[in-house]
UniProtKB/TrEMBL annotation:
Main enzyme class: ligase
Gene3D superfamilies, sorted: 3.30.1490.330
Protein name: Glutathionylspermidine synthase
Species this chain originates from: Sulfurimonas gotlandica (strain DSM 19862 / JCM 16533 / GD1)
Keyword tags: ATP-binding, Ligase, Magnesium, Metal-binding, Nucleotide-binding
The organism's taxonomic lineage, starting at the top: Bacteria, Pseudomonadati, Campylobacterota, Epsilonproteobacteria, Campylobacterales
InterPro entries found in the cross-reference section: GSPS_pre-ATP-grasp-like_dom, PreATP-grasp_dom_sf
An annotated Gene Ontology molecular function: ATP binding
Length: 392
């Protein structure tokens, strides 16, 4: 059972001073939970080891997909395939961050992979900053967390230049390259998160700027802001699958830009392979004995309680929990029903004394680097709550 430590909550005014404006959900309830999950040092180390081992399996599975031309099976838009291959070929296309969603890990329950948010930074702001603020607010030791997210991502930006472990080489190799950061205008959460990641890159030593996505200029010669300044790197908080399906002209232009070596895009296009839940079927086949993986298939699993998901989708939309006899126990509708389906063996989340369920999130930036939780029901949706943790 999940054990919780009660806290004095952060006031809305304090959160807004930090740039965190999405603190209250549509029903008036607070998004940031006023409790912390108690985690032992051994449990934190197990999450760390799981994140590292699972990432290695994703890399092997992605290589298998590329070598065997399995893009269709993963639901990858055809106009992004060459972009993905190009980004996979060279280390200059560096994966900056991702977040694993995991069941278990606390109170003796085995850690199981639910999915990998490899290109979308949901809960990054909360995990990297607000957990520390919660501890400080309550006069607790701020070091009592498995949470090195901010520093880990900053260091990972340096690897764009060093392309190796020795990030101390950054200063002697960096030659003034600039990163343009972009999000869609009008979305406060995405803009605040993008600007946080921009600050991480600035702290790493890069020259950085911000431009709303609508104002960025693209042509075969590169990527430019509204003032025609050119950038060697472009970070976009805009999903690759949406570029492929909704912005086909942009997808074609980005492929040309990459082929001409005019800019490097972050996160790289190959993270779309990781983002597709279809790759978990490939991993299930390649690593049938992994203690972290649940059986996953493109067809309904026989005689097994399971979860039906779309290969792309967010916040639990278009997810069903199906009983052994085929009855739908719980489901959430959404806009992703046209995507291909995958079927994943069901596993239970940890619960607290009141029956609320908890899904762990482990951020990965070169290595596993931080832990937080989402609190909700059987299917974690956009009304799930953020819960920090404390080491005990």
């Amino acid at each position: 059972m999940i054990t919780l430590k009660k806290l004095n909550p952060l006031e809305d005014a304090t959160l807004e001073e930090l740039g965190f404006t999405w603190h209250t959900d549509s029903d008036g309830s607070k998004y940031i939970n006023n409790e912390l999950v108690e985690v032992t040092q051994e449990e934190a180390e197990a999450y760390y080891e799981a994140g590292n081992e699972i990432y290695d399996m994703y890399v092997e599975a992605a290589e298998y997909v590329i070598e065997n031309d399995l893009f269709f099976e993963l639901g990858i838009p055809f106009n992004l395939i060459e972009t993905i291959k190009k980004s996979w070929e060279s280390n200059v296309h560096w994966h900056i961050y991702g977040r694993f969603d995991l069941a278990g890990g606390v109170d003796g329950k085995e850690i199981k992979l639910i999915e990998f948010n490899a290109d979308t930074p949901t809960s990054l702001f909360e995990t990297a900053l607000l957990q520390w603020a919660l501890l400080k607010q309550n006069n607790m030791n701020e070091e009592k967390q498995f949470n090195n997210v901010y520093e880990a991502i900053s260091q990972n930006f340096k690897r764009l230049i060093t392309l190796e472990d020795d990030i101390e080489l950054f200063e002697e190799r960096y030659d003034g390259w600039k990163i343009l950061f972009s999000s869609v205008a009008g979305n406060e959460e995405e803009e605040a998160t993008t600007r946080l990641i921009q600050q991480m890159a600035t702290d790493a030593g890069f020259n950085t700027s911000f431009e709303y996505l609508q104002n960025v200029k693209f042509d075969e010669d590169g990527i430019f802001d509204a003032h025609d300044n050119q950038y060697e790197y472009w970070f976009k908080l805009f999903p690759w699958e949406d570029i492929g399906t909704d912005e086909p002209e942009l997808a074609t232009t980005l492929t040309t830009i990459m082929q001409n070596q005019e800019a490097i895009i972050l996160n790289p296009a190959y993270t779309l392979l990781f983002q597709s839940k279809g790759i978990m079927k490939i991993m299930s086949d390649l690593f049938p004995d992994s203690k972290y993986l649940l059986k996953t298939s493109f067809e309904p699993l026989e005689e097994m309680k399971q979860v039906e998901k779309t290969v792309f989708g967010r916040e639990g939309a278009n997810t069903k929990i199906i009983d052994v006899n085929g009855d739908i126990i719980e489901q959430i509708d959404g806009p992703y029903n046209n995507y291909k389906k995958v079927y994943q063996e069901y596993t239970e989340f940890n619960k607290d004394a009141k029956g609320a369920k908890y899904q762990a999130g482990v951020f990965f930036a070169y290595e596993a680097c931080g832990l937080s939780f989402r609190k909700g029901s059987e299917i974690m949706d956009n009304m799930s709550k953020f819960v920090g943790h404390v080491l005990v």
